[in-house]
Amino acid sequence: MGLVSRGAAAAGLGAASAVVRPGPPDAVPNPVPSPPPGGAARGSSRVPGMVLKAFFPTCCASADSGLLVGRWVPEQSSAVVLAVVHFPFIPIQVKELLAQVQQASRVGMAVLGTWCHRQQEPEESLGHFLEGLGTIFSHEPWLQLCRERGSKFWSCKAIHRQVSAAPDVPSEDQVMLIFYDQRKVLLSQLHPPTVVSDHQDGDTMASTGGLAVVFDTVARSEVLFCSDQYDEGPVRLSHWQSEGVEASVLVELAKRASGPVCLLLACLLSLISAASGCRLWKLWPLPFIRSKLSTCEQLRHRLDHLTLVFSTQKAQSPAQLMRKANMLVSVLLDVALGLMLLSWLHSSNRIGQLADALVPVADHVAEELQHLLQWLMGAPAGLKMNRALDQVLGRFFLYHIHLWISYIHLMSPFIERILWHVGLSACLGLTVALSILSDIIALLTFHIYCFYVYGARLYCLKIYGLSSLWRLFRGKKWNVLRQRVDSCSYNLDQLFIGTLLFTILVFLLPTTALYYLVFTLLRLLVVTVQGLIHLLVDLVNTLPLYSLGLRLCRPYRLAAGVKFRVLEHEVGRPLRLLMQINPLPYSRVVHTYRLPSCGCHPKHSWGSLCRKLFFGELIYPWRQGGDKQD
Amino acid sequence: MEDERTFSDICGGRLALQRRYYSPFCREFCLNCPRLSLRSLTAVTCTVWLAAYGLFTLWENSMILSAAISITLLGLLGYLHFVKIDQETLLIIDSLGIQMTSSYASGKESTTFIEMGKVKDVVINEAIYMQKVIYYLCILLKDPVEPHMISQVVPVFQSAKPRLDCLIEVYRSCQEILAHQKATSTSP
User: Fold this and answer.
1) From CA A109, how far away is CA A96, in angstroms rounded?
2) Is A453:A507 a contact under the CB 8 Å cutoff?
3) Taking every annotated instance into account, which residue ranges of this chain make up the domain Phosphatidylinositol N-acetylglucosaminyltransferase subunit H conserved (chain B) (predicted)?
4) Do B111 and A563 touch (CB under 8 A)?
């Protein structure tokens, strides 16, 4: 950069322009000011008295002297420096480059000032030369940043030529230097994301978000960072890429391979979904069974996820990209855990042990139920039951248990083979295996469900009968038309029979209520176990693991905001701050990027649940269909 | 320019306020809270271990003792990392914003930065806290929809809880900067 060649070739651009090189003032040919293209003299408005904030990238702090290029935001009186243009340069080419970048990125670019690194330029005459550049690139205010030799403090000046009392004397503003890491700001996303208006200048956003403007400017100026000071282009720039770019071969290979792989998998998945949607599956009773089994629901959910991940459309927004990545990582983890479970099951004949243990366990449960019923048929907890009703209900349920045990014993030779084939499904994912477990529990406790339904229906009928006869007892009646209780005059026969029936029902109530209570408790126990399994499945489905991993390894990618640190300060020198990215807390990461769940959450509140239990209405904890019906 | 003064918090503990004036438009206030006292730490540890030893003599299971040791260790680490705040800092920069930092005893720092465009005012409020009436400094944030309404109140120095004399010092400095900010800002 210390070379000076007089009469420098203008590179065939005509006599009107000249190559600008640094050197003593008499060696520099008269720079002919070319007419500025429209928009170069932007930023003439400013806020008087406001401190000028200069955002300077840390990578340019050791760059050679040159011009500062970036964006000026007049509403906040801040200058965002994006790169440094080194000598030698031709002013026309610099302006062309800026116009190109402005068109591509829709961000107002301009030459903001000069940068002088005194440690590498020992000549003192550079100062005058740099001031001369202010006339070629007119910008209000004109920044002059200078790094002294042997001192870590900088000198910054912002000169205003137009607006001042004496037109010949330029006025100066106070400058505050804010250093920022360009690469991190480029890659990070602010949460909550600010809406960017797509105007020609892009300046309308400046009035809304303060620091979001800086992030937006850097993110949209990627076009500027394509060429470097080591490239052979007409303009030599220094920015974050000059420090060296790290890239991974695997990532690049994956990016190249992802196109055809996505296409292939998308075709495969569309075939599968077409096969599952064909008319054959709509024959009764298949849709009925499908709606009841949670395994089918989980498989469909996973199919939807995979279709979204491998779709050939590119993600529209960063949020969509994160969602796709989260889904992919969730599916991969699921399959990995499922394969681990599979290998554990198939090692050392665990399936055989499980199958051998299953029938005795079912027998044991049935025996316990029989003991329970014998206890109920006697004098449970010292209560006196109505003997006849007790015997009827007890024998009815005992016969059911006997039937159930016979079926289990019929199936016992096939259980091991069934379990082995079902265990293979764990390779589809841990969630599928857990859903199958939940369905098996539902199947095995089917008799408890039946008992619950019988008990509940009986109890429900009794409660309705009691309430209606109670109204008759008081001389009232339920008016269906008006949906309210009205008085009614009954004649003597009706009153007599009604009262008799009422008395009978009241005295039979404790027996029915006790059976209902016992079987409801058993059913709630089974529902709780199934609920825990569903909770675990939901957790694996919805946890955004990719976002959590990103927050752990690259915390600057997910930004909640910024934080400032005041660097060493000397009185009389401009204030220097370091702007760092404040990462998003983990709870907000999970909250923002959580995947949509199956939707199998209980829809009742505790109050409505208690009300249903009291009146004997059947409870379906998951969806409207509920589990297998009788 | 830096100076340090001693104040007291609402419970009577000693607080040290450090003021740094970097420039006419950038000021920083650091409040150092009283450290973790050895006396209370010893008391808690002794209580837990005596209780564990009592249970051990009852049930003769050595797992109780190991559980007590691990609970004490984990509890202390969790307390130092998540609960005990050593220092609270308020940095106010004209035309940029207000930053509040809390440093925990384990070295963790949690920072919140509020942009100047969102700040309506900095005031001292009175509040009823248990059986006391205390003063606290808070930042009022503007409502994005209606600029004259207040959308949020952010209290400052929540764990240090200094008394009114300390708050007045901080309040005066903040008001000087905010006045300058209001005079030079564009929005109404």
Assistant:
1) 11
2) no
3) 89-158
4) yes
Whether residue A577 and residue B93 make contact (CB cut-off 8 A), yes or no, is: yes
Question: Closest partner residue to A564 among B1, B91, B94, by Cβ?
Answer: B91
Q: In chain A, which stretches have pLDDT less than 50?
A: 1-18, 23-44, 164-165, 198-207, 624-630
pLDDT score of B180: 87
CA distance A72 to A76: 9
pLDDT at res. A208? 53
pLDDT of residue A254: 87
A53 shares contact with chain B (CB less than 8 Å): yes
Q: CA A28, CA A391: separation in Å to the nearest integer?
A: 117
Residues of chain A found within 8 Å of residue B113, distances taken between Cβ atoms: 561-564, 582
Chain A nearest CA to B118, separation (Å)? 9
Cis status, amide bond into A141, omega within 30 of 0: yes
d(CA A86, CA A242): 12
Put simply, the answer to whether A49 touches B184 (Cβ < 8 Å) is yes
Q: Which of B19, B101, B111 to mutate to test the interface with A (most CBs of A within 10 A)?
A: B111
Terminal alpha carbon distance of chain A: 90
Sequence spans of domains, chain B: 2-36+84-186, 38-82
Is A578 in the B-facing interface, judged by CB distances under 8 Å?
no
DSSP one-letter code for A248: -
Residues of chain A neighbouring B22 (CB-CB closer than 8 A) = 566, 569, 575
- The upper half-sphere exposure of residue A556, i.e. CA atoms within 13 Å in the direction of its Cβ, equals 14
| Contact between chains at A582 and B94 (C-beta distance less than 8 A) | no
Are B128 and B110 within 8 A, CB to CB? no
CB pairs under 8 A between A and B: 59
- The alpha-carbon gap from A583 to the nearest alpha carbon of chain B, in Å, equals 10
pTM of the model: 0.80
Can you give the pLDDT at residue A629? 39
Asked if the Cβ–Cβ distance from A210 to B116 is below 8 Å, we say yes
Pick the CATH number of B2-36+84-186 from 2.60.40, 2.30.29, 1.10.357, 1.10.287: 2.30.29
Among A601-610, B27-36, B74-83, B129-138, the least confident range:
A601-610
**Contact between B95 and A50 using a beta-carbon 8 Å cutoff:** yes
Question: What does the pLDDT read at residue A289?
Answer: 77
Q: What residues contact B168, with CB distance under 8 A and at least 6 apart?
A: B124
Sequence-distant (≥ 6) Cβ neighbours of residue A341 within 8 angstroms? A426, A430, A433
From A557, A558, A556, A580, select the one nearest A567 (Cα to Cα).
Answer: A580
The CA distances from residue A485 to A112, A329, A471, A473, A503, in Å, are 84, 60, 8, 13, 22
Q: Is B61 on the interface with A (CB under 8 A)?
A: no
**Do the beta carbons of residue A66 and residue A85 sit within 8 Å?**
yes
Cβ-defined contact of B113 to A75 (cutoff 8 Å): no
DSSP-derived secondary structure letter, B100: E
Assign B109 to helix, strand or coil: strand
Distance CA(A105)–CA(A107), nearest Å, equals 5
Tell me if A582 and B113 make a contact (CB, 8 A cut-off): yes
pLDDT score of B26 more than 80: yes
